[in-house]
Amino acid sequence: MTTPAQDPARIARRRREHERQAVIYGVLIALIAVVGLGALAIYTGAIDAPFAREFTPSTPEEEVTPPCLPVVEDQPDGALPLPYGEVVLNIFNASGSDGTAGIAGANESVLSARGFQIGTVGNHPKTLIHNELRFGEQGIVAAYTVASHFPQVRMVMDTREDATVDLLVGTNFDRPLDVDDVSTGPLKNAEGCKPADEITMVPGPAPTGEGEDAEGGEEPADDGDPAPEG
């Protein structure tokens, strides 16, 4: 039995197809290798990233102990939420990206529509992963009132002496709950809370006008001070 002679043109066509496939696969493998090496170099800091925003840190944020709610006279079942119009709420973008029109502005729109008295809206120099509320001892009930509008939020007590509350919106932020899901009953203590007099407070925001030296010049803003929206 004899084998039919193969068509030379067909053989040449198959050879060209194999060569073309080898070139395509080789280019794809080379591109994948280049992208992988570039990503590794950016991640390790060997070269600068072609974009301004830094990678979100993978290490968890420092644990903080929230203060417990104070005992309120004539409210034996626990402190009730304050009327929203009595809460002065400042909102800061702490995601590390420039501009406040995005996440900070979105929170402002939702919370102002619910009646909160919005103070300053701007950028914060500190980059956070999760949302954080900052407040002084006089603002504990106000802070818990704001916290009831979020599925979770870090509660950080600082040394400010008024009842204002700062909302710092982090990179992995939680949006406000739907208004129908916000409890109007007595507020609940945060898990692991301690009495306010047992809390080590973090520094509060600098008073207005602080930061000018004796010669009238301005000192650089401290890392803990928010930058107002420009």
UniProtKB/TrEMBL annotation:
<feature type="domain" description="LytR/CpsA/Psr regulator C-terminal">
    <location>
        <begin position="87"/>
        <end position="173"/>
    </location>
</feature>
<feature type="compositionally biased region" description="Acidic residues">
    <location>
        <begin position="210"/>
        <end position="230"/>
    </location>
</feature>
<dbReference type="Pfam" id="PF13399">
    <property type="entry name" value="LytR_C"/>
</dbReference>
<keyword id="KW-0812">Transmembrane</keyword>
<feature type="region of interest" description="Disordered">
    <location>
        <begin position="188"/>
        <end position="230"/>
    </location>
</feature>
<keyword id="KW-1133">Transmembrane helix</keyword>
<protein>
    <recommendedName>
        <fullName>LytR/CpsA/Psr regulator C-terminal domain-containing protein</fullName>
    </recommendedName>
</protein>
<feature type="transmembrane region" description="Helical">
    <location>
        <begin position="22"/>
        <end position="43"/>
    </location>
</feature>
<dbReference type="InterPro" id="IPR027381">
    <property type="entry name" value="LytR/CpsA/Psr_C"/>
</dbReference>
<keyword id="KW-0472">Membrane</keyword>
